Amino acid sequence: MNIVVQVKLEPDATQVSVLESTLYALNKQANKVSEVAFDRDVKRNYDLRKLTYNDLREAGIGSQAAQHIIKKVCDAYVTLKANIKAGNLGTQGSQRRVKAESKPISFRLDSAHPYDARNLSFALEKKTISLWTLEGRMKNIPFTGSEHGLAKLARFKRGECDLMRRDGMWLLAVTVDIPDTERYEPTGFIGVDLGIVNIATASSDPAG
Length: 208
Fold this sequence. Notes:
- By secondary structure, the chain is α+β, with helices and mostly antiparallel strands.
- It has helices at residues 13-40, 45-58, 63-85, 95-101, 147-155, and strands at 2-9, 113-115, 120-123, 128-133, 136-144, 157-166, 169-177, 191-194, 200-203.
- Strand 8 and strand 9 form a beta hairpin.
- Helix 1 packs across helix 2, helix 1 (13-40) packs across helix 3 (63-85) and helix 2 (45-58) crosses helix 3.
């Protein structure tokens, strides 16, 4: 079972500047990739990668970040297609649906961007992370979170993370894989008799 643990980053002024320029650049490039996907009607990951990966690398985007941009764009178009099919954007010809279908998907400059173990790592004892940025690997970014959430980060396998900025705060949403608990199979039952004098009387005797 996957759950999401959210931690708050506490970067200093220099780190904030780098994170901001990196996240903004990643989303600007995502918008360019989205335009290619829309104009060429190419929305499958492998095919879109052939059209856009080299341009992303030439723009200074790291290999793993470039692949995440392409996947992010493809996932957005899959979600749009599912919403259209489900009727969430109205019937064919409706103003809302026409608007959604007539232009490329766009991303806010502070939209979340995915990271994984190849370009982001945790130092849990120090409560810091290091991650890829446009200026290289940036280390020792402090983070904090609930005691319950941090315990899950330490105990269970961590997956993909989303870096985001919300209301001036830098956040990291971390996917954590928690093993499913063993299903309990009962071996008996308890009967409950509702009454007036005794509101409820329990019995494990099959005969009542």
